[in-house]
């Protein structure tokens, strides 16, 4: 698919003086570098690389006064592609990228919402600290830290949001607040899992874990008998020590033969302990290639900062959380794989499931796997038909991996009584529904188009 990157007529937009010099519009030299995300092509009327909370408050007031649609972008890497638009405003947080260690002994750190997780990992490494935060260093902090954060050390250290101690936001009325367990605790509860619906996060405080390094096994398995492979891997993963977290990606190898690329991270740098914990992984299926190495955690998350229009987008993605992978689930995953460009399983459980389901808006604390499948729009119907076979086995979804935003997805992302509490808080903090561009919290009234 070819996409024109040439200038196009810009709508007649005027901005308050404090924002006018910031606005990047169609035809401006830097526009093509900021208009898209990694998975979605966009043509916003303007991108506003804000400098601070005051700029954000002015931008929100402008969007409210002009009725322009707007989206918020921290990194632009999200699979859901919700941080760009056509004809609206993009509030770009990339300048809010500071990483400050407040108390190294206690692991307390402050991170700007526009920072990239690779930069965060590098900044914390000299202190022997780390936050489990996804699997790609170029991901922005804000999007992940308001949704969940299923990272490479999830089973050992939980989700990213499990380590949040405070958040700073600009609310719909332009006020700037700091919320934590003692100040606006209901808002703090909501931010951890549904934060994009309540304000624009500018910074977070986390309590990072003491991490001296990790051991990483990268294996490619012969997955010709894909159903058997998936069920065996699932059983192996559930029985593993909680220091072990696995990410499995199904791909097509030479000659169309199915193979599985598996990255397994042991949270610790003791190679003998890692070998012991991973000793039976090779029995899951024939191993085609294998490498085991120890490394500082930040080496797994190089930031890169690639141009946001560098990749051909796959704009349709599906997400589901699974308790177990039995034969029926595995057969459903295999069917999905025939219509998807990528299928990935991430292990959760362990420390993720230590958190009570009522502790925060992200309530999925009993499942063991997160499944994501993505493809191009032309294959949406085929993907959805095959995904339907998995529906009876799915219990919840991870909203950052899902492009549908209808009532069913809302209920899956936020099971009751979480959804009712979120809707009540939405009425309190955002009664005008200013923050509805990222998985809107609305009382169901019919499916929303994708």
Can you describe what's shown?
The two termini are 20 Å apart. Helix 8 crosses helix 10 and helix 10 packs antiparallel against helix 11. By secondary structure, this protein is α+β, with helices and mostly antiparallel strands. The model is unreliable at 1-11 (pLDDT under 50). A hairpin with a 5-residue loop joins strand 7 and strand 8 (176-180). The chain is built from 13 helices and 17 strands.
- Can you count the helices? 13
Structural class: alpha+beta
- What fraction strand? 15-25%
Cα-based radius of gyration, to the nearest Å:
21 Å
Low-confidence stretches: 1-11
Arrangement of strands in the largest sheet: 14-11-13-12-16-17-15
Q: Average pLDDT, to the nearest integer?
A: 92
Shape category: globular
Distance between the termini: 20 Å
Secondary-structure element sequence? HHEHEEEEHEHHEEHEEEHEEHEEHEEHHH
Helical content (DSSP H or I, runs of 4+): 10-25%
By DSSP, the count of extended strands is 17
Main β-sheet, in a few words? 7 strands, antiparallel
Can I get a quick summary?
With 450 residues, the chain is α+β, with helices and mostly antiparallel strands. It is 24% helix and 23% strand. Helix 8 (226-239) crosses helix 10.
